[in-house]
Amino acid sequence: MVYANTRFGEAEQRAVPDAVVSVRCDTRTVEADGQLSLLLGVDVGSPVAEYVFIGHQGTSPRSLARIYVPHAVARLGVPRANESVWGDGVRESLSAAGVGVARTTERVTARFPTTAEAQTLHITTRSPVLAVERVSTDATERVVEEALPVLPGDRTEILFTTGSVPERLERSRWTSMNKMDGHEYAATPLPVLPPPAAPRLLPWADPEGKPCYLSTDDNGSVISRLADEIETGTTAARTPNRRPVP
After folding, report:
1. Residue 157 three-state SS
2. Residue 93: in which H helix or E strand, if any?
3. With 80 as the cut, is the pLDDT of residue 221 above it?
4. Exposure letters 7-35 (e unless 16+ CB within 10 A, then b)
């Protein structure tokens, strides 16, 4: 089983198929406890939709994913459970409800399962699992989804694909319209920085008699002002006093 961070794209979904053939989804409304209130940024006791996805290969459970969406964000229906074992159908439901996801952060931790997780996955509490914490936020940094997949460590591969920095910058600079979660957003061009200023020759030398240069974009820095004062004084000393012509 492969957990890929690029699975939200159609090409990546085709390239990384899941071996699970069936997914069960249970949905209920819960009140946020202390942990959920911290994860979702809501008050304790706030209503939250909980989606529990259990993926099976044959009759054996292979994955467990718990997804939480605050009611204050959206009141969603039951997602299409057979689309993804990771609960990505919730993301599609958010998009359909007009909730855009601007950023997703995923943290993977190796640990032992809780008793409830071990019972669900049919493993022992001493069998390591990979626990994923996926936090999705909108453009205002509001948490719109919290996903907590748990995967048996002996049958899971984590795949992360990241584009190069120049590639991302070039795409941001020249792409006029981007598509995110089914919506189109105008891309903001990156500012074009001016070329760096040429080094300035300072009116003094180092202890070895070599010339000193100053490279800075701040013409009001301490060294710049000191150089201005020395150059002004030197120029005044070299200029002869002229008597006014009567």
Report:
1. strand
2. helix 88-96
3. no
4. bbeeeebeebebebeebebebeeeebeee
